[in-house]
Structure formats: C-alpha cells, structure tokens
Write a structure and sequence with these properties.
Layout lengths: L5 H15 L15 H7 L18 E13 L2 E8 L2 E8 L7 H9 L5 E10 L5 E12 L15 H6 L1 H7 L1 H23 L3 E2 L5 E2 L11 E4 L4 E5 L4 H9 L4 E9 L11 E10 L3 H18 L5 E4 L2 E4 L5 E4 H7 L11 H10 L10 H13 L7 E4 L21 E6 L2 E8 L4 H14 L11 H7 L6 E7 H9 L41 E3 L6 E3 L2 H9 L2
Parallel strand pairs: 3-5, 6-10, 14-15
Antiparallel strand pairs: 1-2, 1-4, 2-3, 4-5, 7-9, 8-9, 10-11, 11-18, 12-13, 15-16, 16-17, 17-18, 19-20
Helix pairs in contact: 5-6, 6-8, 10-11, 12-13
Amino acid sequence: MIFNNQYVQERIKKAEALREAGINPYPTGIQRGMSSKEFLEKFDYIKEQDAEEKKDDSVRVTLTGRIKFVRIMGKAAFAKIEDIDGLVQIYYNRDDLPEGYYNSVVKKLFEVGDIIQATGYPFVTQTGELTLHCLDVKIVSKAITPLPEKFHGLQDQEIKYRQRYLDMIVNPVVKNSFILRSKIVSLVRRFFESKGFLEVETPMLHPIPGGANARPFITHHNALGVERYLRIAPELYLKRLIVGGMEAVFEMNRNFRNEGMDHTHNPEFTMLEFYWAYHTYEDLMNLTEELFRFIIQELNLPTTLPFGEYNIDYAKPFARIKWEDAIVDIAGVPRENVRDKDALIAFLKSHNIEVDANLPLGKIQEEIFDEFIEKELINPTFLTHYPVDISPLARRNDEDPQITDRFEFFIAGKEVANGFNELNDPIDQYERFKAQVAAKESDDEAMHMDTDYVKALSHAMAPTAGEGIGIDRLVMMLTNQHSIRDVILFPAMKPEAPQPVVEDANKPACKKCGNTNEEELKPAKKGKGFFCIDVAECKKRASGD
C-alpha cells in the first residue's frame, strides 16, 4: 500500500485536521494570481525607495505556488514558494492573520510540498529581497507524501525517470529543459507552416510495418480480427498524400520500434517527417540548415553550443561529405578499394572486425561507416550519396545507379536526420520491395511488400524530396543532454520490483525496504526514521530478490 509510511500517515492526519477545522485541503475554483516573475519585475522599484521601510502596502497581490522552504521564527515565518517561473519569498506572522489561525493551522498544518496561496503587499527585507507580506494564506492542495530531503535532493536516476513529476518538483532545471523542448517543437511547426507546408495526421496502426527498417510492435484489432503494427514511420502514408496532390506536408509523429534501448534510442520517440514536391535533397539540406538557425535565433541561444566535450558551431555552413569520400578520407580505405567488397572485408579483418561475406557491398561499407566514420562527424555534417543496398526508398542517382540521392545529418557523432529524393518509379520500387522480402530470412528488420503503396506510385507521384528529423535528438543537441531519457518526459522503463507491504504503519520501518523487524533496524543519524542494520539484506528486500 503506497500510504503505509509513517511520514505519509502523519501528513494524512494533518489533512484530516484541516477538514476538522472546516478547511478543505483540496479546494476547487482557485485562481492563480500573479506569477513570481511578474511579481519580481513589477515591484522591483521598491528596492530603489529611500524610505527606511521599503514597501507598498497600498496594493494587494496574490501569489500561488508550492512551498519549497519554511523558516519559522516564533510568531512569524519566512517561506519560499515556487510556480512555473521560479521561486519567490513570502512572509507571514501571527498578528496579520485571523486570531488563532497562525498557530493552529498555518504553523502546525502547512509544510514543505504543500501548494498554497498567499495574498498581501510587496516589501523588501533587510537583506534586500523582494518579498510578499501576507495578510491571508490558504491551502490549495495538501501534499501527503513528503519531498526528498533537501540536502541530498533526488539522487536516484531511476526514480527521476519513473517519477518525472517528482524530478521536476525537486530539480527546476529539469522542468525548464522540458519547457524548452515544448518551445522547440512549437518553433518547428511555425517554421514549416511559414514555408507553406500543411500539417497532417496519418495512421498509427498499420496493416504492415513500413517506412523504415525496424522491428515493429504488434497488436490485435478485435473488431477487424487482424493483426496491426504500431507505426515505425509515417513515410509511406505521407507520400500517398503527395500522390493525392498535396505538394508540401509534414507530420510531428510518435513512432514505435521494438528494438534495443540505449542513450540515443527509446522504443517510442518523436519524429518530424516532411515531404516536398518539386524539390530535391539539396533543397532539404538547405532547409535543414535554415531550420537549425531559426530555432537557435528564436530561442536567443549562442551560435556555438556545448555538447559534452565538444563546442558545436552552428554559425558556419554545415559540412557536406560524400559517402565514398568519407570511407577514403576518414576511414583510410584506398580509393580503388571503395567498391571492392573483398578488399573491404580484408580491411575490416585487419582491424579485427568480422563480417558476413554474403552481405551486399553497401552493408559492408556500412560496417566501415559504423566503426570508423560516424564518431568523427562532430560539427553539423551532411553525409551524402548513400549506396542503394541500404536505401530501399531513395531514388537512384542518374549518373551512378549504385548510389542514391540521399543524405544523413550528423552532430557530435550522432545521426539527427535522414533525407533523400524519393523513389517514384513504381517498377523500381516493386523490385526493391521484393529484394527486401527476400532478405527477411537473414534480416528480420527488412521491409515488407507494400502493394498498396506501389499501386499509389503507379498513379504517378511528382518528383519529391522527403526528410525525417529526430525531435528527441534535436532537443538533446540544443540542450546538452546525453541521454534520450533526459529529453523524454516518461521514458520506457523496466517494471519495478514489487515493494514489500508494511502491515502496521505505526511500527518503525526501514525507509528503503519497509522492513518492520525492530531487532534488525537502527535509527537514522539525524533521528528521522530507521534503516536496516544489514545493508546487503536491505538491498535484496528492496529489489524484490
């Protein structure tokens, strides 16, 4: 039971005491009042007053926020409350509040974590801090679970991800990062709308997985009696819209891929995909460069941003390197060996890398890219002219049919975007789907045959360029975050181990595992709660082992 904790029980009793005093601990119809930012800006002039007592008691201001700190000094108290804009100080004392209210309610029943509303006038303390002198204080929402102890804060990374709400309460910088993410998404929409693109919505449940090489999540549609696949990419549906006559479309979509998880991969993620008729992949690269500069300018960010050990320069033109030139100039493969599969296998073997000799040339080149090239692409770089073998939806290059008019975009050694001239030859597309189907015996991520999409292409699709940009990775780059979990509000997590049930909430219990055997417990150093004497056994119990 989540409430079987002695500190929670104490707070529940305080909520009941509020009710007994005729005060609803969870009232409705509360108006927010002035924000902390507005308060600090509007009344900053009081700091410049010459009067010995700097105040403006002719105005009345209402502030609402969560109590983050309280210092009680007999009949008066200072507190810090926090709203979406930040912290602001309030002051209240016994003489300004209704008789008995301070001692019996505010001092006794209000505590850190509660959301309160305070009304009063602004003044400046002797230490020079603009503060609200309260004439009225009331509860807005009672917190029955205490916040983490202030000195140590919230240190457990797993709890931060599982209880993002708590992470945001305790760590304002986390909340600000997600506010920034929201602004970035809004700016992306504004940018594409300003270019004449239409935002559209396409299905998330697909009859076959398509649009990317990935393993899908599978579900069952009861009414239709068929299997459906959660979207791995919206690409094939968006291009159907181009066939239908929409010449510039974009979608900010959630994709799902049933694959591994690491610092740059989450099984569900946000992708921007856009398709532009009568344009080429070169136009997409120019547009991508313009998009980054637009976002940075609108957010008032510097044009050189840190990302770990690197300083990424977004001001100078983004580099453009051909795929085969990178294999030569970065990986060190002799130019004459770039398309010699046996020579490439030997090159990899000389670096103790074994590959399947049956793989096509493009896949062998991709092994070299993964091992030697990607990590070297630090400043914004477009890698262009990918091989056909690893580009099943991209248009062949007119001058060299072994490569495609495709690019991938990299920052700090990480792929951020992928774009290409779309394949609009229905016969070529059909043959490539067939090749993908044949490859499924050895590659379970190969694409399925999508006959309906081929049928759509057979009605003629205008020459089109399309691109996908990973929104999560874009945010990572602009906010210097190195794990995708730090830019996704609720990342995928393994199920929690079942927590032990404490039968009697009044018994002493270990704060970590809930153990109530008093012979196995010792008081915490600061006298608040108990911990197990045997640390190893405590860890086992806490993990469910």
